[in-house]
TrEMBL record:
This is Cytochrome b/b6 domain-containing protein. It comes from the Bacteria. It is a multi-pass membrane protein. It comes from Serpens gallinarum. It is found in: Cell membrane. The chain crosses the membrane at residues 12-33, 45-67, 88-110, 146-165, 195-219. It holds the Pfam family Ni_hydr_CYTB. Residues 7-177 form the Cytochrome b561 bacterial/Ni-hydrogenase domain. Keywords: Cell membrane, Membrane, Transmembrane, Transmembrane helix. InterPro entries: Cyt_b561_bac/Ni-Hgenase, Di-haem_cyt_TM, Hydrogenase_cytochrome.
């Protein structure tokens, strides 16, 4: 039995590190504000593109990148808590963490597309939402950053726990793509051809371009005519 197996394909690893850097940059630029808000918007679009890529790659990527694995893993949480988890890839708790992070970042991206701070930033789809909706989502966007920071903190603590206490080098695995085999049930990742990654990347770029350009070719919502009262 080989001492290690391929778990994470190259496109997923590139996504992971670009996602971590771009989300960190978006948080920092949004926090500092001012002239950096233009970069906050650009990084938000980059995060959006990465999320689109990840959604598609979860369908056509290699074994442990697929949503079928990630979504079904939490169903085995009782076995995992009893120490009976023998599978490669994300553990049930790891899958829950991934789903929570991607979901919350996805909300931040969607709300950011129509956000408006009345000073230095307007999302690319701001003109397509009425002012009340934009203001509401902008407020949620600001508040949700605390939940996002909390999830990121838990994610980092979990990685530290597995690396220092459980002696499982998760960071190294996400760099090399290989993980130590601990059970005969664990198999090498299959699928995720390079041409599929290229097609997925092109699709993600096209979606981002369409959204970023939408404000220029879609008309804003019609304004409500004032009500004339007949006294």
């Amino acid at each position: 039995m080989s001492s290690s197996i391929k778990v994470w394909d190259a496109p997923l690893r590139v996504f992971h590190w670009l996602f971590a850097l771009s989300v960190s940059g978006a948080i920092a630029t949004g926090w500092l504000g001012g002239n950096l808000m233009i970069w906050h918007g650009r990084l938000g679009l980059l995060v959006f593109g990465l999320l689109v890529f990840r959604l598609l790659w979860g369908v056509c990527g290699s074994t442990y990148a697929r949503w079928s694995r990630i979504v079904s893993a939490p169903l085995r949480l009782p076995a995992y808590l009893r120490g009976q988890w023998r599978h490669a890839g994300h553990s049930p708790l790891g899958s829950l963490s991934v789903l929570a992070l991607l979901g919350l970042v996805g909300f931040q991206v969607v709300s950011g597309l129509v956000a408006n701070d009345d000073i230095a930033f307007q999302g690319p789809l701001y003109r397509l939402a009425d002012s009340d909706t934009s203001a509401w989502l902008t407020g949620l966007h600001r508040e949700a950053k605390w939940w996002l920071l909390g999830l990121i903190g838990l994610h980092v603590l979990a990685i530290a726990y597995y690396s220092l206490i459980r002696k499982r080098p998760l960071v190294r695995a996400m760099i090399s793509g290989r993980s130590q085999r601990t059970s005969a049930e664990q198999q090498e990742a299959q699928g995720g051809a390079p041409w599929l990654a290229a097609v997925t990347l092109v699709c993600a770029v096209m979606v981002v371009w369409a959204v970023d350009s939408a404000a220029g070719w879609l008309a804003p919502p019609p304004k409500t005519a004032p009500v004339m009262l007949d006294w």
